[in-house]
Every structure is written in structure tokens, then in C-alpha cells.
Amino acid sequence: MNCPCCSGKLLRHINGKGLYWYCPSCRQTMPASEDMNRLLLQQENSAKLNHQIWLYILMQPRENAA
After folding, report:
1. In 3-state terms, what secondary structure has residue 31?
2. What band does 66 get if pLDDT is binned at 50, 70 and 90?
3. Who has the most CB within 10 Å: 4, 9, 12, 57?
4. Beta strands in 4-66, from DSSP E residues, in sequence order
5. Measured at the alpha carbon of residue 52, what is the angle toward residues 42 and 64, in degrees to the nearest 5?
6. ∠ at Cα 9 (4, 51), nearest 5°?
7. Alpha-carbon distance 2 to 36, whole Å?
8. Residue 22 DSSP code
């Protein structure tokens, strides 16, 4: 999941107050609100879908293969 501030990789953390997100690139913490979780999940699902599409394309037989 990517940081909305710098696009760095977010890490999920937990402490006595609950769950939150931390970006080691910009050193920002973000609460794990439902809106933030929804946004990050959409980013992750979009990345997975793009990866699956590329795998599908790469696995297709080539028409002009020699």
C-alpha cells in the first residue's frame, strides 16, 4: 500500500491506542481510519489487477512466433 503523501510503502503498526499506518519514506503516521483503509485497499486491488492483466498478456501465444 502506498503513502498518499509521497507514494512510499506504508507499514501497518499497532500500539496501545490501536492500529495506524507509518511511512518510513516521509516519516508520517496516519490513523487507520475506515476511509484511509478503503483508499489503500483500492490502490492494492488496482495494483493486483494490473499485475494479473500483464501476466495474462504475457502468457498468450504470439501470432508471429518463429
Report:
1. strand
2. low
3. 4
4. 11-15, 18-23, 28-31
5. 145
6. 95
7. 11
8. E
Partnered with residue 11 across adjacent β-strands are 22
Question: Within a 13 Å sphere around the CA of 4, how many CA atoms are in the beta-carbon half?
Answer: 14
Angle at 23 between CA 18 and CA 28, to 5 degrees: 75
List the domain boundaries for the chain: 11-59
DSSP annotation of 3: -
Q: State whether residue 17 is helix, strand or coil.
A: coil
Cell numbers at 33, concatenated: 481510519
| Tens of pLDDT, residues 3-56 | 888 988 888 888 887 778 899 999 998 877 777 667 766 777 777 767 666 666
C-alpha cell at 51: 499485475
